Amino acid sequence: MSLNEISLEKKLAVVTNSQDSIQGLSLWILHHKTHYKRIIHIWFNCFHKAKSSHRLTLFYLANDVIQHAKRKGFPQFVDHFADYLKKATALCIEDKISASIDRVFNIWLERNIYSEELIEELRGLLSGKSVHLAAVSKIVAEFKLSELIDKIKKTK
Asked: Considering the domain 5-131 in this protein, what is its CATH number?
């Protein structure tokens, strides 16, 4: 089944914050799941252009799609969305919708949709902290000086 990109853009532009509207478009997107890369790319482009209030609606749509994709065993959708969520979250720094977006992060954490590391990274982006503190902490905790010294000696 082919994807009508113009139709998708229109659907994304007019989706409302109502449960019926979000679920209806979510089902349409999941029906076209073979085009997940293109769909997510178009979703992000619409997100980037949207006003703050519509960005929240698009985030809720992403949440619905991601949770249903995870439940229905389509992990590619969930995984591919992760990179775009980082970009989208970075656009919402100090925005009036940030508290609502953080509630979505809590849901993903509680339902094991995404890893704790990714959620912490998203929260860092949402608060304006671009440093990946969880990743840095893990690297520091796992660093073994003796192994580094051994590797340096072997290269001589």
From this structure: 1.25.40.90
